[in-house]
Structure formats: C-alpha cells, structure tokens
User: What shape does this take?
Amino acid sequence: MRKEGQERYMFNLEGIYQSLAQFVPMLVTIAIIVLVLWFANWLLLRRAGLTTESRLPGQVIMLLLTATALIALVLALPVGDSTRGDLLGLLGLVLTGVIALSSTTLVSNVMAGLMLRSVKSFRNGDFIRTGEHFGRVTERGLFHTEIQSEDRDLITLPNLFLASNPVTVIRSSGTIISCEMSLGYDVPHHQLEPLLKDAAVSAGLQEPFVQILTLGDFAITYRISGYYPEVKHLLTTRSRLRREVLDKLHSADIEIVSPTFMNQRQFNNGEKFIASPKIHDSVEAKNVAPESLIFDKADRAEKVRNLKDEYRVLTEQIETLKEQLEGQEESKVAEIQSEIFKCEARIEKLKNIIKIAKEQPDE
Assistant: This one.
C-alpha cells in the first residue's frame, strides 16, 4: 500500500511539472516582452532632453513594438493550434475595431502628422496662420503641433486640424508687409503715393508700392506694401510701418479720416484732428524688439533646427574630405586632415549646444 501511494504521489507530481512546463514558454515570453518594452520606452521616449518632435520616431516604433508583443504573447500561449488561430483572428478583429472607432481622432492625427512631415510645408520657428490662429511653430509631434502666439501663449493644434485646413506659412526668406488706410477724395493720390513710399522706406521695407483697393462712397482705401527680409521682427515692423504712415501724413497736413467723420462730430472751421508727429530719438531706437520675448520658445526651436542642419552639413563634409584623402600628396593630406579636425571640433561644440538648448526648461 505504501508503495502504491508513493507511485501515485510521484505520478501526480510529474503531472504538475508537466502542466507547469507548458507555461514556461509563455512566462519567458512575457518577461522578454516586459524587458524589451521597458528598455525601448526608456531609450526612445524617457531620455532627458527629448522634444516632442524628436519623440516622433520613438512613438511610431513603440506602437509597432506593442503590436508585435501582443502577437508574440498569443503565439506563446499553451493552447492548441486551432485555438491559437482563433485568438489571432480575435486580436485582428479587436485591432481593426479600435482603428475603426478611433479613426477620426487618434489614427487620423497620426496619419496627418506623418503627412505634414512628408510634405515639409513648415518647420520649427516658422510663422504660420491657420483658421483664427497665428504664431511661430515650436514643436511638431506625432499627434499635435504646438505654436507660440503673439501673446507668448502656447497653442496646441491637432495635426488633423492642420491637415484639413489651409495653412499659410510666412517664408523665412522674406514677406510683404502692408498697411491699409482710408482717405478722403480731396487728397490727390499723386501727392499721397510718395509720402506712403517714404513711410515704407523709413520703416525698413524694400521696393515699396501703393495700391488703391476701393473707391468707396465717402473715402478711398489705400494700401502701402513693401518687402521685408527679416521675418523674425514681423510684429515690430508692422507697427513701425503704421507709425511711419501716421507721421508722414500728419507732417504733410493730411487727415486720415473719412468725410463721414464730420457728420458724426462737430468741430470748428479750420480745426483739424491731427496728432503732432513724434521726432524719433536715439532712446527709442535702442528698445529691444518684443519678438524676442513673445516668441522665446519658437526662437529656441529654430536655433536647435539650424544647429542640427549645420551638424548634418559638417558630417557630410567630413565624409567628403575623407574620400579625398586617397591618392593625395603629404602636404595636401595634412591640409585635409586639418580641415577634418576643425569640422569634428565644431561638431562636438554643436552637440553640447544642442543638448543645453533641449534641456533648457520652458518658463
């Protein structure tokens, strides 16, 4: 009896071991999946100094790794082939349902983000206008794009919104700055145009031109425009143009009011509503442009972008110089190696500058 009991005990113990052995591949797979996802998450998304734009490739890779991990987990389950096939089919249906239900939000924003990056219509630091929003681009992510407004506020725009609405991008090479005003029919246009062009030149614009937009019932609408190459000071230049227009017209004894102004308010004969022109002094010229305060984060993003562009150019230049070393004389080799050393030293400086710029906190 004791021998039979021992045999029964050993049989049960062996059955337990066999049952547990079936779960070993699944447990090993789970451990590997957890370690791989944790390490990938730290490497791609959790490192210090990563911006929203630099996280974009990592986010795409994490999505693919997660989907692969789910498939590997199903394959490691201790079930039959038919059951495993059913589970894979069910998983496919679930993923299809999730994609279908979230197609207007999550997946749509991801696809729109990838489309915007492939089109390359704007970059960090560019001025853009879409709908009622205007500002400079600070970050571009997988799901959203962030811009900094004229009030220094940060606005988060879903990528789907940018993909489905017209986006006006102010070219970094320069733009046209304009100012409109209404003047009475008693002001000759041939007298007005030189004054407006002079105001545009005083505001720092190039190649100014005047347009007559409308001939209204009571006034004529003029527009003075000019080319401005430095778009970073866009807001300041617009304000400066309006100020110069006021000063030039008032100095020429021209009122910027329509004839209906007389019907709304009585004034004495000969009285003119003209403000005294202000004489520009040296103190005003020393004032710092407000764009440096308004678009501080956008300026930093643009500088990082320019530094990365320089880093890429220097890397390509080093590769070209190394290819030129073959078959050169000793004097020429020394000159090329010296140039390579300068490029490598500049690259090291760029790495430190980019790292410091990325780690700088947003206030």
